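Pilot study result, target chain (259 residues):
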Amino acid sequence: MTVLPDVTVLIPARFDSTGRVRNLKVVLRYLLHHFRVRVLLGEEGERPRAGDFLPEFQGRLEHVFLEARSEHFHKTRCLNALARMARTDLVLTHDTDVLLPPGKYLAARDLAARGCHVVLPFGGRCLNVEEPEIAHIHATLSLDGLSEENCPLRHPDVYGGAAFLRREAYFEAGLENERMYGWGCEDDERVRRLSILGCRIARIPGPIFHLAHPRPPGLIGPESPRHQANLAELRRIEALTPEQLRAEVAGWEWAKPPA
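Predicted structure:
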């Protein structure tokens, strides 16, 4: 087990299916098996639902509940709440359904510790992991044997799933854009915004592994109204000059550092 005293892991979650809960358990067990690190789990919903499995991780993670009645997961708000709780130089934003080999996390963390503002611990290719491979990960807490031969390509170039960020630069660049809801374009927007603002961004070669799960119908997908709204916000941000973007981010109340 590797100790990461300079990292806080931020995991935003909404429990919309048993598959997503199962995947979160796998992710937590995997991360806490390989690393001794502070983990903040942010749960958004009408009522807390994480209590059924939190006792297993007692003393090893901190659970934060954010009440919300919208059908759309406000992932960006959840991440920002967790970022304000972190006190380490680095934060690792991490989805509930992705994993990487331990060495990829460590390579990304080392690069961020040396001053790179954002480091994605994968090269862009996202591979989909289904059964029986998910059960194997759950049993072994290892990704050994996974490759493009047994995990189909889900997406050739993604920016979401996991990212190490220098916390000070994260706040200066506006944290997450809370105008974006759900999944879709929010990770691209973050990377593009930080790039416009002059942050150094790097990637570690290799794929990221996505654990398959059912998806709520009608709420996501490129044709959904929410995805289209997120895409419009991404395009708006991309059109700003660095000076315009700095002025806008300065007015984002959610990005004010904690006292």
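One observation from the pilot: The mean pLDDT is 92. A full batch analysis is planned for the follow-on phase.
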